[in-house]
Amino acid sequence: MSADFDYELFARIAELGSISAAAAKLGMSVPMASKRLARLEARLGTRLINRTTRRIALTSAGSQFRDDVVAILNAIQLAEDRLVGSTRRLSGTIRVSAPTSFGRMHVAPYLAPFLEAHPQVDIEFDLTDSFVDLLRDGVDLAIRIAGPCPASLAACVLAPNRRILCAAPAYLQRHGTPVSLRDLHQHKALAAHGQSPWRLAGPEGAVAFDVKSAVRTNSSEVVRELALAGLGVALRSLWDINADLASGRLVRVLEACEGLTDVHIQAVYPANPTPPRRVLALIAHLRALYYPAPPWDRP
Description:
This protein has 299 residues and is of the alpha+beta class. It has eleven helices and 14 strands.
């Protein structure tokens, strides 16, 4: 095995945070992987990884070397792609993370055409409402509904994220319809953990409305179900409730107010000069679904 393989081994260890996981990925034994890592450190004259019984951590030299090695490996892959040509088939695994509701409603149903077009690509698709650490968890692509991402990540905006205030007709019949933001203080509000305050834009400009949810929950899907059940007023994204608005199960309240527009639906991936072509292809596939007008925004 060549020095290039040692570089790939080290990059995998840094990516996966585990010598055993990297060894399995590259089809070699753990003792052999440990031995080659030790030889690489001896050849470089510096320790790249601090080992403990529970985890590994890159040294400062290891972090710098990781960045350089990944850039080198990406450059090699890019050179091969250019030589073979753009008709080369995409292959490999794409590890994708997405918010639970959005992933279920607006990503999963549209993966089949992508996989049919690229039969040598595999997708690992995990749903969570928490922000994953892409580098630590080995995630290639995360769908996030958020503002600007950190410098260590690159982002492509897939669609705007319009949010409106809404409630079930039965709730409004019992409690009346608010006509101003002040009226909201007399109503039951619904929000998941981390969704307060509501940051709204209205006739008086941007305002922050502190929310004490009628039910405490960590699930955004539960908030939607509570609103449908007539328990209170919620701030929801159009991608989440457009069918409920169309059917009349929910109605918009305070139409002059919306959530601030500084939050977008984004595809986020580790920043490097040459991202994997399969990841860029999946981003392009998703963007074509939602751009220039996402289906939930169309009449």
